[in-house]
Design a protein that fits this description.
Length: 247
């Protein structure tokens, strides 16, 4: 049995990636997509074991399925989740999809605002200390961590320290969404039928309803992510040109 996990990043196209993978006839992802399973954040559930996890979410007797898995975007920020996934499934495929961090921060802000969590302006929000802001502790991660959440490389290291390099894949939102060649390369990497064309792959999923971001604030914000972005580029061995459009 093979497993895969979409672990983040939040507001970076994870719902789109879920749709692309779950559409493939050889993949079954945990449902519903919302609320996310977040199984590996819950120690009490993990104690019940691997067989409980599989039977709770999947039809493991379906011989058509090559992969079983889930999408839970909080996993990228929670080292204990990474360790629990590794304990259960050390050979799992780990998938990240990353978005230009300033654009991701804006989308995160709009999502929090539309959800009734955020009352500050964008400028105020990104200049506030998220650790000093109150929020419902039933939320799995701090909803106001707009900047830290975009410092991707530190989070990715948690997984590279556990899983084999060949089992980790990073997609770039700007280059992946709507790109059939990139989608089919992902299928090929997973060892699936790569000629499969998912329905409506050119349509985005779960977009925030928002106005345009304040350009001057986003340009200034982008500078905070330069070092982390360079580390991501070094890891990938290529320049992420779509993230450098503001240069």
């Amino acid at each position: 049995m093979k497993t895969l996990f979409i672990v983040g990043a939040q507001r970076s196209g994870t719902s789109y990636l879920y749709k692309i993978l779950d559409s493939h006839p050889s993949v079954e992802l945990a449902k519903p997509i919302r609320p996310e399973p977040k199984f590996f954040l819950k120690k009490k559930l993990c104690i019940l074991g691997k067989e409980y996890y599989l039977s709770r979410y999947f039809d493991t007797k379906n011989n058509k399925n090559v992969y079983f898995g889930e999408k839970s975007t909080s996993y990228i920020e929670r080292p204990e989740a990474a360790k629990r996934i590794y304990t259960f499934f050390p050979d799992a495929k780990i998938l990240f999809i990353l978005r230009e961090p300033a654009a991701r921060a804006w989308s995160n802000y709009i999502f929090s605002k539309n959800s009734g969590l955020e009352t500050k302006t964008f400028f105020e929000a990104i200049n506030s200390d998220p650790e000093k802001r109150e929020y419902d502790k039933n939320i799995s991660v701090n909803p106001f961590n707009y900047i830290n959440r975009g410092q991707y490389f530190g989070f990715i290291q948690t997984y590279t320290n556990l899983f084999k390099p060949e089992n980790i894949r990073i997609e770039i939102y700007e280059d992946f969404v709507g790109n059939l060649k990139s989608i089919q390369r992902l299928y090929d990497w997973l060892g699936l039928e790569s000629n499969f064309e998912p329905e409506n792959y050119f349509l985005p999923v779960n977009q925030s309803k928002s106005e345009e971001p304040p350009n001057d604030v986003c340009i200034e914000l982008s500078k905070k992510f330069e070092h982390s972005n360079l580390l991501i580029e070094e890891y990938l061995g290529r320049t992420i040109t779509s993230w450098r459009a503001k240069d």
